[in-house]
Design goal:
- The complex is a heterotrimer of chains A (about 280), B (about 375) and C (about 425).
- Chain A is mainly α and about 280 residues long.
- Chain A has 14 helices and no strands.
- About 0% of the residues of chain A have low confidence.
- Chain B has three domains: about 55 residues, no CATH class; about 55 residues; about 230 residues, Orthogonal Bundle (MetI-like fold), CATH 1.10.3720.
- Chain B is built from 18 helices and four strands.
- Chain B has a two-stranded antiparallel sheet.
- Chain B is globular, with a radius of gyration of 28 Å.
- The two termini of chain B are about 40 Å apart.
- The N terminus of chain B is likely disordered.
- The chains are: A mainly alpha (about 280), B mainly alpha (about 375), C alpha/beta (about 425).
């Protein structure tokens, strides 16, 4: 028992070191965002390898909010990620319910055809999609940023699997009470599927937030950049060595809200991913 | 049921309507089913199926991005020429010694396959197919190469495919093993473990450009934290990004840091599904920690592992941001990956036709992996 | 979704408001690289650096009472042409955009940019004031497709203090520059022995500054890397040019691993005696040299030295173009775009303050231009500028050369293999 306990604390110590190293990149970014630009131009390791922001300044953040487009990009990302998440949830739960529970004609053919879409990566279709949105004159709009991603069938797959797992007697009881299909779907199945919806919602949100390739080709005016593309545009700039602190501040701003959402909802997020992955 | 019967009672006054009602009842499932799937099916066809086939169609053309945008007739149908330029060369020959090491290594995979058959872990039918593909790929196809006077039509293509493959082959095992190790270590109910889980998952929520921003700086020989640390010990800074041997490891490290959290969480979920009784029973039998790991934990999450590996392979084959922003594909193309090549061919060189061909090829490669994985999965599931 | 509603309502409100005041503004969009300058303002004379000078010129025009507002889309350099093409093909082409001389054929050959030949006089632009080389730069098939803004070339940016320590400064304060590859190696050795610093820094690992350097050295031997239909990369001239630079790396007098930002930093930190970079940074380095926090203090900028027979240095040109459909689809915006180009042309002197060479004879002859800081130090550059032959494949060819040169310098690929591969690849592009 004593040996076990020592082993346990040894493991905790090892994990602590590893966890600290794991955090260093984020800490460093955060610390640099709080140091003056002209200092960073000379050295990035002023105090404790630069991990502690001394001398300290808020100027990078102040300038970020008064100048430049970072807040706008952030807003765009939010609109795109939330819009996409909601729409994916609606489309996937509707279709998933039908594939799982409604014995409509052709279901046995259509469902495999939908699943077949899982093997088509975004990169295999982004060029034709680009020409399509160009023909429709729809680039640089929220709809162009959101729409293509709605077609990915992973959500339908997850929801179908989930609905299949719900015992049939629940629906049968409701049907006996005279509930029609829509009522069953909205009143019974949707509330039951909340865990699955959380999984899907979070996966979609993370994907939308991180997506880089499609916004890079579709968002053609700086006002329509998502934060991902916007950040990319300032990091490959000639001016980087002149404004490191501010670039890092943009990185912090881009990350902070997602990190906060993650910290608050992490139990749901982890449970959700586990649910999706465990299947 | 009640509402339906009152409805049919009311409509029985009109016989034709009743007939219609019957038809409606009979087909109601189909009607409603299609109503439910219609919204998804609509976007699915418009934004995935149609573009997929349009991509193949574009790949059969000489299609200049700018020229066709201004004049739709400026494209030229050239059949499979883009694919020929991609995959073939002039003066091609077959040589026994081409890529010999890799090919022998590939052929050596036949041994574990047939060993699995012997053990009964793999059905012989599947093994025959697998062996045939391996012999064809490693024995025959990889022997093809340009002769002394010949060369590939696209000299970059195969090395870019190889780079992408190398990225996947380096990243997936690292992400999987670190994710699994951490999941096993952190699979305990205690606040400090919860804190660790939070920390290790945290990097996963960052966007790719934040990750590249940080790691670009970390790897910088003049300003990076690694060189700053090395300087403290009076060591020379490492030129990660411009060194041919270190550039790929550099983007792999950044990727592992970024995407390990997801694997860890899926593994944690898999571990939860192993019934605790099994552990207790084994412990009662006097099994130590290693024995528990080998005989209960690992077999218990085999399916989870397969899932993690499939998801990772598919995800990392699509790598773009890390290569595009950290190393810009360099030095000397050593970190140039397929998706970046597609992007540059389409938008820098304006060659949509060739780029679409590359995209179709990316699809085919990923399809092969998906099929292999699904097959293996099915075999193991039996 | 709510946001979109708010946006629509607010834009309606703004239109209603503006309408009631009776203002009708023509808004045109301008795309450029050079990076962002958020604090540009409208005071052109006070601006420093490429981004801020050009943005203040644009802002000033936009603020004038001319009924035209300009919406600028500044882009980072790395993705500029990818994005411009994506915008064109996506039907979102900006009304005015920057373009290089070297890229003009690619856009003009498929007719996506406007033939301005007839319309320039209309808005008061005097074509005869432009230098011959400027007119050559904007011409494709005998038609004019752009308004030129500068000629920019590779220069030698010099840290005089370091050279002085190595005894490489003349009595008149000018640096002693090498006149042959051997002499360059000797000088590099002197610098190393006297100061311990690198002789030369440049971006050899990222942007194609190294390509431009090699091109200059090839031209100095009267060579070319390609002609109209033939790649001539694998030639003794190119080999000698590459070896000249490789020798510096091998002897440890220069570091091939530096990228643009790193090489600039090394020069400003006093870690390298010479930096090879363009005209666009002269005013920036001049300002940095005056900053007491910056190690570089005695800054000098010189013409690219002649290491072989013929003086030559790589050059290109920044210019402005208008999409070809604008004239037909929206004459009002077309006129506004032309006016903006005329305004930029009017402010050519201020653009030249960056260090670029003017394209206007009147400016070149003016006292103000010739009195610009360091201008006299590289006065001869304008006479020795060279560029590759115009080709629609410029972007791809430059990329091939950049890749193969990096392969030699960074990954130890043999010069033979790299030049053979480069020649084949360039030949494929030319076919």
């Amino acid at each position: 028992m004593v040996g076990n306990k020592r082993l346990y604390w040894l493991m905790i110590a090892g994990l602590s070191i590893f966890a600290f190293l794991w955090l260093v990149p984020i800490l460093w970014m955060f610390s640099m965002s709080l140091q003056p630009n002209n200092l960073l131009a000379r050295t990035t390791s002023n105090t404790a390898l630069g991990l502690i922001p001394i001398p300290f300044t808020f100027e990078n953040f102040v300038r970020l909010f008064t100048l430049g487009l970072t807040p706008r990009w952030f807003l765009n990302s939010m609109v795109v990620a939330i819009g996409m998440t909601l729409l994916v949830l609606i489309l996937s739960s509707l279709a998933g319910y039908a594939f799982a529970r409604i014995p409509f004609k052709g279901r046995k053919i259509i469902y495999p055809l939908v699943l077949a879409g899982l093997v088509i990566p975004e990169q295999a279709v982004f060029i034709p999609l680009y020409t399509m949105f160009a023909d429709w004159n729809l680039h640089s709009s929220y709809s162009a940023l959101i729409a293509p991603r709605l077609a990915v069938p992973i959500g339908v797959f997850l929801m179908t699997q989930f609905f299949r797992g719900i015992p049939v007697y629940i629906e049968e009881a409701a049907e006996l009470d005279g509930a029609n299909r829509w009522t069953i779907f909205t009143r019974i199945m949707l509330p039951l599927s909340l865990p699955a919806m959380t999984t899907l919602g979070i996966l979609t949100f993370l994907y939308a937030w991180n997506d880089y390739l499609w916004p890079l080709v579709s968002a053609q005016s700086k006002e329509m950049f998502t934060i991902t593309v916007g950040l990319a545009s300032i990091q490959s700039n000639f001016a980087q060595s002149e404004g490191l602190g501010r670039v890092m501040a943009s990185g912090v701003i881009a990350s902070l809200p997602v990190v906060i959402i993650f910290l608050i909802f992490q139990r749901y997020i982890v449970r959700g991913i586990a649910l999706g992955g465990g299947k | 049921m009640q509402s339906q019967s009152t409805q049919s009672n009311r409509s029985s006054h009109f016989s034709s309507q009743s007939w219609r009602q019957n038809l409606w009842l009979k087909n109601r499932d189909s009607f409603e089913g299609y109503l439910f799937i219609a919204p998804f099916l609509f976007v699915y066809i418009i934004f995935l199926i149609y573009p997929f086939f349009k991509g193949i169609w574009i790949s059969l053309h000489e299609w200049n991005l700018l020229a066709v945008a201004f004049n739709p007739d400026a494209k030229e149908f050239i059949g499979l020429q883009n694919y020929r330029d991609m995959l073939w060369g002039r003066g091609m020959t077959w040589g026994l010694d081409n890529l010999l090491g890799w090919r022998l290594l590939g052929l050596a995979m036949l041994a574990p396959i047939w060993w699995s058959v012997q053990r009964g872990a793999l059905r012989s039918k599947a093994a025959i197919w697998l062996s045939l593909s391996i012999v064809l790929l490693f024995g025959v196809i990889l022997g093809i190469h340009p002769g002394d006077d010949g060369r590939w039509y696209d000299r970059r293509f195969w090395s870019i495919v190889w780079n992408t493959l190398a990225f996947v082959l380096l990243t997936v095992p690292l992400v999987t093993s670190i994710g699994l190790g951490l999941a096993i270590a952190l699979n305990r109910q205690s606040p400090i473990m919860a804190l660790f889980r939070t920390i290790f998952f945290l990097s996963q929520v960052l966007s790719v450009t934040v990750v590249t921003l940080i790691w670009q700086m970390i790897f910088s020989p003049s300003q990076g934290i690694i060189s700053n640390l090395l300087q403290v010990f009076g060591l020379e800074p490492i030129t990660w990004i411009t060194n041919e041997r270190l550039a790929m490891p550099a983007i792999v490290i950044a990727t592992v840091w970024w995407s390990m959290g997801f694997a860890m969480v899926v593994f944690l979920a898999g571990l939860q599904e192993i019934p605790t009784e099994r552990y207790e029973a084994a412990r009662l039998d006097g099994a130590g920690p290693w024995s528990l790991l080998r005989h209960i934990t690992l077999p218990g999450i085999r399916r989870t592992t397969t899932l993690v590996v499939i998801l990772q392979i598919i995800l990392h084959f699509q790598v773009f941001g890390q290569s595009h922003l950290i190393t810009r594909g360099g030095p000397n193309d050593s970190t140039q990956v397929l998706v970046r090549y597609i992007y540059q061919t389409a938008f820098r060189d304006s060659e949509l036709g060739y780029a679409s061909g590359l995209a179709v090829l990316l699809f085919v490669i990923m399809l092969i992996f998906s099929v292999i994985q699904l097959r293996l999965n099915r075999e193991e599931g039996v | 979704m709510k946001l979109k509603l708010i946006r629509i309502i607010s834009s309606l409100l703004i239109t209603a408001l503006l309408g009631s005041v009776g203002l009708s503004q023509t808004e045109i969009t301008l795309a450029r690289f050079l990076g962002d300058c958020e604090q540009a303002g409208t005071n052109i004379q006070e601006a420093v650096g490429e981004a801020c000078i050009i943005q203040s010129i644009i802002n000033n025009f936009s603020e004038q009472d001319n009924g035209i507002t300009v919406n600028t889309l500044p882009t980072d350099w790395g993705n500029y042409y990818d994005q411009i093409k994506a915008m064109y093909a996506g039907g979102n082409a900006p009304e005015v955009h920057m373009i290089h001389k070297s890229r003009l054929p690619e856009f003009a050959s498929i007719g996506v940019i406007t033939d301005l030949t007839e319309d320039l006089a209309e808005i008061g632009v005097d074509v005869s004031d432009w230098t011959d080389s400027a007119i050559e730069a904007i011409t494709y098939n005998d038609r004019i497709y752009a308004v030129p803004m500068d000629s920019h070339a590779n220069l030698w940016h010099v840290n005089l203090d370091l050279l002085a320590q190595a005894g490489l400064v003349n009595d008149d304060g000018t640096p002693i520059l090498p006149s042959s590859p051997e002499e360059m190696l000797e000088q590099a050795k002197l610098v190393r022995e006297a100061t311990g610093k690198d002789y030369l820094a440049a971006d050899f690992s990222q942007f194609p500054i190294g390509v431009r350097l090699v091109l200059s050295l090839v031209w100095q031997q009267n060579g070319e890397v390609f002609t109209a239909d033939k790649a001539t990369v694998n030639t003794p001239e190119v080999r000698l040019a590459v070896e000249t630079i490789t020798n510096l790396f091998d002897a440890g007098y220069a570091d091939p691993n530096l990228n643009y930002a790193d090489s600039q930093q090394a020069f400003l930190d006093g870690e390298a005696a010479v930096l090879i970079n363009g005209t666009w940074v002269v005013d920036f380095y001049d300002a940095q040299a005056k900053d007491p926090n910056v190690a570089l203090t005695n800054y000098y900028v010189s013409d690219f030295p002649t290491l072989f027979d013929t003086p030559a240095t790589w050059a290109d040109s920044h210019m402005w173009a208008i999409p070809s459909n604008l004239k037909r689809d929206d004459p009002e915006k077309y006129q506004a775009a032309l006016k903006l180009l005329a305004w930029i042309n009017d402010n050519n002197l201020d653009w030249a303050r960056t260090g670029h060479m003017s394209v206007r004879r009147s400016v070149l002859a003016s006292e103000a231009y010739n009195n610009l800081p360091h201008r006299s130090e590289y006065a001869n550059t304008t006479n020795i500028v060279r560029d590759v032959l115009p080709t629609v494949k410029y972007g791809a060819i430059q990329d091939v050369l950049n890749r193969e040169l990096q392969a030699i310098w960074l990954t130890g690929k043999s010069i033979d293999d790299a030049l053979t591969d480069a020649e084949n690849a360039v030949q494929d592009l030319l076919r």
